[in-house]
Design brief:
48% helix; alpha+beta; 3-stranded antiparallel sheet; 9 helices; Jelly Rolls; 5-stranded antiparallel sheet; Arc Repressor Mutant, subunit A
Length: 227
């Protein structure tokens, strides 16, 4: 059973819980629990049974796949007020989890068991609306990833990645070639080759675990010319 301060936290991310006298709020208080998830923890491994549904109160979770060759591809991340659509699908269909979900930043989450989750879908329209809106939004995200990987050149996507993630003065990205490859859904060798080209063209300066953007406008022009 949730404590008053935990219900206040829940109502910040799920507005339909703000009136504690409503049936959904009363059930949420009685049946949800708040748990802590440390960074690095695996929430689900591929093939696990989805025994519960989680709504993040804070932190961040990454959902990804690993291919037969060992290459990883990030499907999506979710954070405060969000949940995992693959978990939703698995709970509704009673299938096993088809990917891996790990905690990237220390998180807390409201947990609801799968039987309760399905019961609330049937009985409470605010809960049903929340779940379906979540599915719609995240499906669009996944489709955008599929479109990028299938139809857009890796060098263009890499230029965009550098522009998006560079911070500071000079603009710097602290990431290995393998980490970048994982984010882009390609191989480390491909990333290393393209970064070497960018380096030769004076767009970046690359060292172990760090990339400095030397010419942001050049990256933007490169990206635009390659589209």
């Amino acid at each position: 059973m949730l404590q008053p301060h935990e219900l206040r936290l829940a109502s910040e991310i799920l507005p339909f819980l703000r009136d504690p006298t409503t049936p959904i709020a009363r059930d949420f208080i009685a049946q949800a629990s708040l748990v802590r998830l440390p960074a690095g923890a695996t929430i689900f491994a591929e093939g696990d049974e989805c025994s519960a549904f989680a709504v993040l109160a804070d932190g961040q979770v990454r959902v990804f796949k690993i291919g037969e060759t060992g290459r990883e591809i990030t499907l999506y991340r979710f954070g405060r007020g969000e949940s995992c659509i693959l978990t939703t699908s698995c709970v509704l269909s009673q299938r096993n989890f088809p990917a891996i979900a790990t905690v990237e930043r220390d998180a807390t989450a409201f947990i609801i068991d799968q039987a309760t989750f399905r019961d609330w879908i049937d009985r409470y329209s605010p809960w049903r609306d929340y779940v379906f809106q979540l599915l719609s939004y995240r499906l669009a995200t996944v489709m955008a990833i599929v479109d990028e990987i299938a139809f857009r050149r890796v060098d263009v996507r890499l230029a965009e990645f550098l522009l998006k993630h560079a911070q500071g003065d000079p603009p710097t990205i602290s990431a290995t070639h393998q980490q970048i490859a994982t984010e882009l859904g390609t191989s480390r060798e491909v990333v290393s080759r393209i970064l070497a080209d960018f380096n030769d063209n004076g767009l970046i300066r690359s060292s172990r675990g760090q990339i400095i953007v030397r010419d942001s406008e050049g990256l933007r022009r490169y990206r635009g010319a390659a589209l």
